[in-house]
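Incident review: delayed structure delivery

Summary: a single-chain prediction request sat in the queue longer than the usual turnaround. Root cause was a stuck worker, restarted by the on-call engineer. No data loss occurred. The affected request and its eventual output are reproduced below so the record is complete for anyone auditing the incident later.

Affected input:
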Amino acid sequence: MRVAPVGGTAVQDHVALAEIELCGELIIAASAADVERLSLDCIDAVLRVAEERAGTRNDPGAEA
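Output delivered after worker restart:
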């Protein structure tokens, strides 16, 4: 059986950390909402989907 080494060898997964942050923002938005479910538009606003898409269009190195 292998166990993770103890000490300062923590690996940071930046994608996982970003996903956790976005999930947290969705949880906050859902708890503050006056409705039972967030609309897709509200979810997109919380996740800043439009901003991300606009950034992708302006980034010549980004894939479509």
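Verification: Residues 2 and 9 are 15 Å apart (CA to CA).
Action items: add queue-age alerting; document worker restart procedure.
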